[in-house]
Amino acid sequence: QVQLVESGGGLVQAGGSLRLSCAASGRTFSAYNMAWFRQAPGKEREFVAGRRYSDGYTYYSGSVKGRFTISRDNAKNTLYLQMNSLKSDDTAVYYCNAGGAGSSPGSYWGQGTQVTVSS
């Protein structure tokens, strides 16, 4: 069993930056493919960024590529999402996910953290 807890969300102005954290407990998270998803009010949850366990390959949705960076610290069992050049369209609840493949989520979700970008 894996538990995920996100933090680091908040209110930022367009063009600003935030770093989200996802702290994992239970099974060592380095053994899982990890990803970030987000969901804006009234919209479907969508894939944002992923990190493949097998080789550390990272991949991003087209809307965030070049602005966001997914990384992890195995010693701290923590996944990060560095978000730069934030836009109003980035406003959403961001969720950490473990155990997925590609842009398809696994069964483990965090509770989410709100990111609001003002313009």
Architecture overview:
The protein is mainly beta. The protein contains no helices and 11 strands. It has strands spanning 2-7, 10-13, 18-26, 34-39, 46-51, 58-60, 68-73, 78-83, 92-98, 108-109, 113-118. The strands form 2 sheets. Strands 2, 4, 5, 6, 9, 10 and 11 form a 7-stranded mixed beta sheet that branches. Strand 5 and strand 6 form a beta hairpin.
List strands and helices in order, with pairings:
Elements: E1 2-7, E2 10-13, E3 18-26, E4 34-39, E5 46-51, E6 58-60, E7 68-73, E8 78-83, E9 92-98, E10 108-109, E11 113-118
Parallel strand pairs: 2-11
Antiparallel strand pairs: 1-3, 3-8, 4-5, 4-9, 5-6, 7-8, 9-10, 9-11
